[in-house]
């Protein structure tokens, strides 16, 4: 990087090693950050907004107090981290200099820049949900020396140049704002989405500043020069050549292979269409993985996209598909990001995880949603990489219902403002465009023709409705499982709760002994650690291949990403999307003309805490009644009009607040916090506050309360000799370095439990706290080789 050197005795960072130390001048760091932030901001055409924030983000470090602080810290003396405020000075300078304008766009620009500066070490609210004016307090903190900072500004900054840059930044924001305003349809929710998009722009600018700041700091501390930029288009070109060569070897014999090739061909043709939001509706066995990648590669190459993201809801799907997709790329061009992935180079992997700079990134929906909405600065750092990309969202129907409004608005922003192409992949396409806060999907957005989706060639199962008004009790349910086994030889039963899985497993074991038939019966749930589950899954797979008789009773963990094929599947009634996922485990390989999927209603199933399962079950039951009353085949639940009807009823009749309602510690929706139209604004106005900021969002509060799923606690279990050895190892007197090196190994012998179940285990004295990293271990005698973690009182929940 080139910059005009000025005399600067102020230090931004100190790198100390055994050979001495190096100091990075503050002016140098700010200039580098400015240049990097400007480069990152170019994709959104907000480079001047980002560059100003980058240049001013650390000018608070020019205080004498901070200079003493950083030298003490480098010398190993105790200092209170964060005790010297260095983030407010740049924000105050911007607000004092430019926010007194009569032009609202000047004020908006100043507030966005100031927010990025004060938030680069932690996101801040403008107005908190209780009406506190957090933005003003952060900008006008009294915890720094204004005189010293003013002297630094006069000596080191070109204020005339900053004024010119501000004028350009205002123009950038005005163009962005007007484009956003034009594309949002007039109506009840226009102000909501407009406010949301302003917050998304703030997140983008902050992402650029954080990424630039951390990258320059890293390069200085490691004494590295900037990495050579990857030629993304060359990456796409090379991957295309490998993929097309593989596709050319595929057989076109038989109707199924011809249809797979036609789907792939239509994905190739569709790749030339303009960037936007697309649907790829593919049934099981249609070659969706390679077809979606074919679309993404050709589209990225044609429109010079920077990244391709593949997002999967479950780690099992990600692991399965990563083996297929990564073969077309050089090793250094691919990042596989999920909690169970074990890299060769841990330090490099953590760096790539934090910035998502790789061309092809495969990650989980959890990581994706956190990047969109979490307050964590590492998540925010990644956000700008989502622009100018192709984003494949697999199994799009798994998006939690309570998040749909946020998801729709953000997908609109990524597509229309960030110029990314979104591909929604699923056999059961949700009608996001028909919710109250709509995703703007156009009528002709399908990548493949409807008749290909509905082709009888892909229909491998018949659906049979066995639901009765009363429902099956456990004895009747177990009898039905055994009857199906006699008829079909292999049966997979999927239930909604772990209690049901356990009870049916015990009932079937008893019937097996009573009938003296000696069929293999397996239980699967997340009460079993990953190694245990994988061992059972392999045994099941081997028996299925050998055509041996077996019964498997499982929670929904088996519905996706598990390559097993049973002759029949029994599914406790639930949402239609989950039923169709379950059917994907039936006659998967087409060994029989048809497999059979039976829908069963348990009589005493307790799913009151599983709101989405309960809602989906109710809508599915009403659809089954509709199909029966119209004398249609039950197989018609696969028809597009039935799937659309299911989602329309689910979204319009649902008691779930799709705006993501927060109940504690305050009652508000995520949408309102992002849009700025929340109760805190009303409170601030009613308190008589003057000079409220133009932007009133509460992004820190929103990020703090955002959770994709309920938090779990890991417990190391004594499964087989290896599990016991790991517990003894972490309980022993070994160097911490050796223990850290075995943490990934320990994950494979860990069961995740919710807090309620954790408390039960602790109160029963079944868990020990080991003297390393707060690791918890289950005592001997409470882990069963068939069902895993044992506890008297089962929670009525469903683990994914």
From TrEMBL:
UniProt-listed CDD domains: Cas3''_I (cd09641), DEXHc_cas3 (cd17930)
Keywords: Antiviral defense, ATP-binding, Helicase, Hydrolase, Metal-binding, Nuclease, Nucleotide-binding
Keyword Lipid biosynthesis tagged: no
Leader sequence segment: none
Domain Helicase ATP-binding: 269-447
Pfam families (alphabetical): Cas3-like_C_2, Cas3_HD, DEAD
Biological processes, Gene Ontology terms: defense response to virus
Molecular function (Gene Ontology), one example: metal ion binding
InterPro entries, alphabetized: Cas3-like_dom, CRISPR-assoc_Cas3_HD, CRISPR-assoc_Cas3_HD_sf, DEAD/DEAH_box_helicase_dom, Helicase_ATP-bd, Helicase_C-like, Helicase_Cas3_CRISPR-ass_core, P-loop_NTPase
Domain annotation HD Cas3-type: ranges: 19-215
Keyword rRNA-binding in annotation: no
Helicase C-terminal domain span: 476-631
SMART domains noted in UniProt: DEXDc (SM00487), HELICc (SM00490)
Matching NCBIfam families: cas3_core, cas3_HD
Family, per entry: In the central section; belongs to the CRISPR-associated helicase Cas3 family.
Name of this protein: CRISPR-associated helicase Cas3
Organism: [Eubacterium] hominis
Gene (name only): cas3
